Amino acid sequence: MSDWFIILQWIFMIFLIVILIFLCFVEGVLRVIRRYHKFPIPAFGTRLIDNPWRRFVQKPRTVAERMQLKPGMIVIEIGPGKGNYTKAVAERILPDGKVYALDIQESIIENLKKKVEKEGIINIIPTIGDVYNFPFEDESVDRVFSNACLPEIPDPVRVLRDCKRILKPDGLVSLCELLPDPDYPRRKTEIRWAEEAGLELREKFGNFFIYQLNFSKKSS
Ligand SMILES: C[S@@+](CC[C@H](N)C(=O)[O-])C[C@H]1O[C@@H](n2cnc3c(N)ncnc32)[C@H](O)[C@@H]1O
User: Which residues have C-beta atoms less than 6 Å from ligand 1?
Assistant: First the structure.
């Protein structure tokens, strides 16, 4: 092997290490900012998050399968973003099931409405709303689903209490998180929030970096 080739290999490795350190630094800075200033990620941020790499490591189909969906179910999604996970859920509850995709940002809901119309999806109902005031009746919902959204809300326990209120007795709350998200909480943190809200853990999927947790109402 020529000396030049070895030198190039070293330069490439040093370059990768510098990039990695830089990304860890950016992630750390964002986490500190997000810890003290919670606000909804702007629409362009949700487009960045929902990219092909993310959909490869956290497949919409797998996320939906873990929710034990059945035709006819009523599902609420908190913070749908681009709607790729919403779509995977909606397909599994056809023909009469509905997903109410609730987001606080008008631009996200407008984009989702366009996607739904363009793709001819009939059972996603994009809804502008704040999770602190769920516009749903007590015990009326089969599943509440949130992907990378709950930790960006300042009072997640309050939201989960309301999830419990609207959940049918045999319903599930399904929460997904993945690590590059600057709001990512560890599994034990999210489990603690849910327990404080009167929910209990049913199933855990994934690993430290990407996980999904299913909760039901606490059995008395
Ligand atoms: C990080 S994005 C995740 C989007 C999508 N679930 C995904 O995984 O690609 C979080 C979403 O939650 C929404 N959101 C934040 N706070 C909210 C609130 N209080 N009520 C409803 N939606 C909220 C944001 O507008 C944003 O669309």
Answer: 40-41, 46, 49-50, 78-82, 85, 102-105, 108, 130-131, 147-149, 152-153
Contact (Cβ atoms closer than 8 angstroms) between residue 183 and residue 35: no
Mutation test of ligand 1: which of 49, 58, 104 has the most ligand atoms closer than 8 Å to its C-beta?
104
List pLDDT tens digits, range 152-166.
999 999 999 999 999
Beta-carbon contacts of residue 202 (< 8 Å; ≥ 6 apart): 172, 214, 215, 216
Check residue 131 and report its DSSP letter: G
* Atom 5 of ligand 1: nearest residue by CA position: 81
Look at the domain 43-217 and name its fold. Rossmann fold (3.40.50)
Tokens describing residue 118: 């363009």
Burial class (CB in 10 A: 0-12, 13-18, 19+), 153: buried
The domain locations on the chain are: 1-37, 43-217
Find the length of the chain. Answer: 220
Indicate the pTM of the whole model.
0.89
Instruction: Judge whether 75 and 141 are in contact, CB under 8 Å.
Output: yes
**For residue range 32-75, what is the model confidence (pLDDT) as tens digits?**
888 888 888 887 888 888 889 999 999 999 999 999 999 999 99
CA angle (49, 211, 35) in 5-degree steps: 60
